[in-house]
Each structure stands twice: as C-alpha cells, then as structure tokens.
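Lab notes, practical 5.
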Amino acid sequence: MKITFIRVNMFERVSSDAMKPILFGIIKSLTPSDFEIEFLDERVEKLPEKIDSDIIAFSVETYTAKRAYILAKKYRTDKNIIVMGGFHASVMPEEMLRYADTVIIGDAEDTWGDFLNDCQNGRPKERYCSSESLPLRPVPDCPEVYRHKYYGIGVYQISRGCKFNCDFCSIKTMYKCVRRKPAEMIAEELRRSKEKIIFFVDDNLFYDRASAMELFKVIAPLKKKWACQISMDAARDDQLLSEMKRSGCILVLMGFESLNAESLKEIKKSANAASDYEKVIENIYRHGMLIYGTFVMGLDADKPDVFEKTYDFAVKNNIAVTNFNALIPMPGTGVYKRMEQENRLLYKKWWLSDKYRYGDTAYLPKNMSPEELRDGCMKMRTDFYSLRCIIKRLFGSRHNWTPENLFVFLMINFISRREIHKKNGELLGGILNEADTDKA
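Output from the prediction step:
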C-alpha cells in the first residue's frame, strides 16, 4: 500500500518561515517497510493536482483545518482512505469525520500501526485514541523524508504537554499531563543530528529544575547552538540560565502575554508577574541570550492604549523577536467556552469561515471594537519589523553582536518582516463553502 502524508499550510501558497516538521521522522519510524510512504510539506512545496495513494494522511492544527478539509475533498476517491490527526483532532473529531474516513486522536506512537494493520485488512476504524501514559520514544534521524533544508535548523522535542494550564492555550486539549524523554535519549538524537542550530519545540522546556540541569549537562559537550521555550519561573533562576548558556542556548521564547496583572489573572498565567518583567529580561541578557517575546492583545482588561504600551515595552527592552497577537478563542479552551457562553463569538467556527481572514478578530472584545483590535495588532507588527526599529533594537543591546546571535537576530527579523505582510488579511485555507461557516 502507498501512503502520502501531508503537512498542511494555512494558505494555498508556499511560506518562507516553515520549521522542520518533526512529525515526518516520527511517522517514518512507525511505518512498516512493506508500505511505500511519501511526505509532502505544503508550506514549502506546491502539492500535486492528483495523488494516487491508498492512504492520504493529514496532520491538522486548528489554523490549517479548513485547508485540510478542502484538500481531502479534492483528493478523495472511492479507492483511497483519508485519515487525519493532530491537535485539532483532539477537540473536533466529529467535525473531522465529515471529511475523513478515520481520525487519530492524540499521539501516533500507539495508534498509527494499528490503523495501518486495519487498512491492510480492509477494516479501518473511524477513531483511534492514544494512551497518555505511553512513554516517549527516540526519533530516528530520517533525512530522506525531508525535501527542504528549513534554513539548516534542526527541530527536536524533549517533552509533550505543559505543567501550567493557561486559559487561552490549546496544549491541555491534547495533553493532560507532561511526559519527558530521558536526557541521554535526547542527547543521542542530537549526536546524530547534522544541524548546528537546534530548536526544541517543547511548549515549556523547564518542567523542573533537576531535569533541566541534567539536560544541560549532557548536551553541553555536543557544541550545538539551540533555542527553546521557557516559562517565567526559569528566567528568574540565575544558575539555571548560566547552565543554559554554557550548554549552547542562544535564544529563549517566553510568553509575556500582558503587562497588566489583571489580564494575567484572567487567562490564568500563574507563572508571570508583570511587575518583574524588566528584571527577568535583564537576567536573560546578562547571560548573553536573545528573547523571543509573545504578547496577547484584546483581553477583557485591555483598553485601547494597550497597543502603544506593549509596543513601547518591547522596543525599550530591545526584544529580538515578538509576536503581537489578538486573543484567539481556540476550541476546547476555557477562553472559547467563556466567549461562547457570553455570546461573544463572531463566528460559529472561525477556523472554517469563508469570511475570517488571518489577523482578523474572532470575538467581541470588551473595551474596543473588533476592527480596533485587528488594526492595533497589525500596526504593532508593522512598526516593530520596520527597518528603523530593527536597526534600533539591533544596536540597542551588545548581546546581539556575537556571531551566532547576530545571525539569528537578522534571520528571524527579516523573515518575520516579509511574512507579516504576506499573511495578514489572507483567507485561511481557501473557500470551503459549508453551512457551518456562516457568521453567528
């Protein structure tokens, strides 16, 4: 049997900011050798008009759901099997089954093989549900599954899940607990890696101090340069930051989310205390690492001045990279449920709407109009990635001028500058034209 596995893009075009899809390597390692399998990444290559495979598999996130459904309708025949998985499958399996024959809920390690066996026997089930108690396994290096260089940056994962439960985040919709690989296992994966720069895609690399220090100790001799996501509690630990830097860390991604303590409480961002943000930033800079900061606009406590205040904070503190995003009610989260109960959703399902465009507001904010929220975020992004602001921030911190930091700073800033103008206002996926995409 032949399988075509597709990583779907949000739009019907090639992007320039795609990261290496770690799932390709996982699926390859789980697929028996008697299957022929090809991997297509729509973010970096144009998909064919026809696919002649027995099984067509889609990895689906909420932002890519409509695109996946459009492609499923395009490629479906009476001879193939359409299967979908990913984050969106965990919260919207019934929706997916309108377009797919099979939905895989949760991780693939204990479900993909069963699905393939059932396909060979001609009896695939509608649903396969993963066990959350399954230990994580090593991912073999499979360079043959990648047809794109992805800027030469390796992508690895140490854990799945997050120890926090922020109200707007979709992580808990798929992972109720945190599972981690042993430090030596990830070190062995990195030893086989040819990439010199690594990004750990864990939602929070810092689970506890002991496991973090053990990890830094075993990867330090590998001489890799790496980036990761951490929570604010890790950024307050001076010794931890010192060990991170020693082991090769050059950039940390942190969710500041808001400068307003009331807003942080609203979204249950318990790790953050806005009053010490500048101290935390200075602590990271003291160890020579860059910061990728994310911010959420349009929370209930936000007034129209939130845009200028947040932008000024990011520029003043010379944050290397930012995401200024409007709050998005993701299905399955506390924010979505609350917005639905308060009748504040602008669309029944914004991710399927043929009217919703990237960057639009999907709900009714309390202290501004949806248009003010949309335009305020776009202005922040445009100003932050203007040439003037990039140069100002570049010269604003001496830590930007080490060779590896300078490369990362310039690469991410100019990629972001290009992509914000391409993505903003673009229709997600294409035209689905379904009844449930109507405006609420």
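Observations recorded by the TA: The longest helix spans residues 403-423. The chain is about 35% helix and 15% strand.
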